[in-house]
Design the sequence.
């Protein structure tokens, strides 16, 4: 059973991190280089052992399969990676124990952080769930409200007024 | 904050749109109180662009500006991915859109993170509007925030055929995207900035970058042709770009008659107050007034935010761009908008009450 990165992802690389945007779920994630490497290479044809070898070669550091498993688990939790069928059951020590042990290996522990519009980036004005057409009725919109239909005389407007989503 | 904050924001944004911004005289202590303001205004990316080559970039407390820059860049990349899909989709449905603002101006900045935008403002000729609107209502439309315009208020004095004739074709990832001609685009961007009272200083940076990247065949006679009120507004926006952001109008080739006429005395102070305003109704998360009808305190708070600054009130009421006091215009604007809201409020109230009952 091999891990496979989801399709419809958009990557933006920076020297110290990679931002990934899930075009289906409209979620942004911030990945450290190890996690970004795994996401790029997990194409469904490579197993954990092969990904481990590749990561160790790419970063010129020792890591071991535990590091790669942890990274894939984090990517899966962020819904960026899928396993055909169910993901493999964790083997070996508990996660906390594994992380403690992994702190001594060379390869950076893969980190995945979901970005929810950083406070200082609020001014994008992006509201993918806008209230514009009849199709938007019932969708969540800004301020955790819902798009609802407002009748004004003969005209109908779709407004962001409804109950909290 | 207000006018003092506005001066700091103006100083910070000066030249931030250039690949090599001018030296910065501000200190970290000056910038820290501005962070929430810059975030609300969508100016964090420009602020980062201004400080990233200075020692301030290493200041941990200013790291949120870098994060915002990256986040803006990602969101812009998403919209850049969607834009060709939307244009192709509309073409398939018999409408040829012309893009204004957003990517049309954002593409001029040195990086994607400089200038965030939230949707795709597409203009179609009146003859194409029905087809475009129906296409965008059809399930299966591209998943992108599109704002479709049959007309822009800021270009209401222009002949649609002339807008179409002057439109240019730009390339985005191999796709042809039609944008407004540079003359009309400058007009649109300048008047749009005033229309919203410069609530986002980056709109004035848009004017600045357009001025500094004018094509060699830019025709000022075309740019300034049309309604006198509109052209006067454009002249004021150019003057504000010079006064607040240090744009060299002469160097940009602005003809003397458009760059030397003095600005009304209230204009620069009003713009600085807008730059430094702590709150604005266009800020993300500000509730729609209609949604606050059942909560008097929230309604009062929102109502206070709806007081338009002098630029916005003048623009919305199409008052002359002269030296006369602005208070009567602002008052008239507030009353007229309030009356419009009262007229619509029964619909909002009905909706709120039925929505509340349906949840009970």
Sequence:
């Amino acid at each position: 059973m091999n891990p496979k990165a989801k399709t419809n992802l958009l990557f933006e690389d920076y020297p110290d991190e990679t931002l990934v945007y899930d075009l289906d779920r409209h979620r942004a994630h911030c990945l450290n280089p190890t996690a970004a490497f795994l996401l790029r290479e997990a194409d469904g044809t490579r197993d954990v052992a092969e990904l481990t070898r590749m990561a160790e070669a790419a970063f010129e550091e020792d890591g071991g399969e535990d590091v790669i498993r942890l990274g894939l688990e984090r990517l899966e939790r962020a819904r960026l990676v899928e396993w055909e069928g169910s993901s493999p059951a964790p083997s070996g020590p508990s996660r906390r124990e594994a992380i403690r042990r992994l702190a001594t290996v060379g390869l950076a522990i893969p980190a995945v952080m979901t970005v929810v519009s950083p406070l200082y980036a609020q001014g994008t004005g992006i509201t993918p769930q806008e209230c514009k057409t009849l199709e938007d009725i019932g969708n969540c919109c800004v301020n955790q409200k819902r798009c609802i239909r407002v009748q004004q005389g003969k005209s109908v407007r779709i407004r962001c007024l409804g109950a909290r989503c | 904050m207000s006018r003092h904050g506005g001066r700091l924001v103006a100083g910070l944004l000066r030249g931030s749109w250039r690949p090599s911004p001018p030296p910065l005289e501000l200190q970290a202590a000056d910038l820290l109180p501005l962070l929430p303001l810059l975030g609300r205004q969508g100016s964090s990316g420009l602020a980062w662009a201004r400080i990233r080559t200075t020692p301030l970039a290493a200041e941990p407390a200013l790291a949120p500006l870098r994060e915002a820059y990256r986040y803006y860049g990602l969101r812009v990349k998403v919209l850049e991915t969607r834009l060709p899909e939307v244009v192709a989709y509309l073409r398939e449905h018999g409408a040829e859109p012309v893009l204004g603002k957003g990517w049309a101006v954002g593409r001029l900045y040195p990086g994607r993170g400089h200038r965030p935008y939230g949707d795709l403002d597409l203009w179609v000729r009146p003859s194409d509007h029905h087809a475009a609107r129906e296409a965008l209502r059809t399930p299966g439309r591209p998943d992108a925030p599109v704002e479709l315009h049959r007309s822009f208020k800021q270009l209401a004095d222009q002949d649609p055929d002339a807008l179409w004739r002057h439109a240019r074709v730009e390339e985005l990832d191999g796709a042809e995207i039609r944008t407004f001609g540079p003359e009309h685009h400058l007009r649109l961007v300048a008047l749009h900035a005033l229309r919203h009272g410069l609530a986002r200083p980056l709109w004035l940076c848009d004017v600045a970058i357009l001025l500094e990247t004018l094509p060699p065949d830019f025709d000022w006679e075309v740019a300034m042709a049309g309604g006198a009120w509109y052209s006067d507004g454009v002249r004021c926006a150019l003057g504000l770009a010079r006064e607040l952001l240090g744009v060299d109008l002469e160097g940009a080739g602005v003809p003397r008659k458009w760059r030397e006429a003095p600005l009304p005395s209230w204009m620069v102070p009003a713009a600085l107050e807008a730059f430094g305003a702590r709150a604005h109704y266009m800020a993300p998360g500000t509730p729609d007034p209609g949604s606050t009808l059942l909560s008097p305190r929230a309604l009062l708070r929102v109502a206070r935010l709806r007081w338009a600054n002098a630029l916005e009130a003048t623009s919305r009421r199409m008052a002359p761009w002269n030296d006369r006091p602005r208070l009567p215009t602002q008052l008239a604007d507030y009353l007229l908008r309030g009356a419009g809201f009262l007229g619509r409020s029964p619909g909002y109230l009905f909706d709120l009450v039925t929505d509340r009952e349906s949840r009970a």
Summary: The mean pLDDT of chain B is 92. The two ends of chain B are 43 Å apart (CA to CA). The longest strand of chain B covers residues 168-172. Chain B has 17 helices and five strands.
